[in-house]
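Help: read this over?
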Amino acid sequence: MAKRDFAFGKENFILIGVAIVFIVVGFMLMSGGKSVDGVSFNPEIFSTRRIVVAPVITVLGFMIMILGILRKSKSKEVGE
């Protein structure tokens, strides 16, 4: 069977997978903080986890995604 020619190499897929995990974890850290009765104010929405840590992790995930897409695969041959 012939070898398939993918646009990305193994390293690219690993970086993209890691980026997806970072993005999902960042959005999970941002979630929550709703009020108990649906009307009252809950100051937990302004916690450091939600306004500092989670966005940093999410942006880091997007940067890793860009790196994974733009990185040239070492396994691809240049001169064919």
Helices lie at 10-30, 48-70. Residues 33 and 67 are 33 Å apart (CA to CA). The longest helix spans residues 48-70.
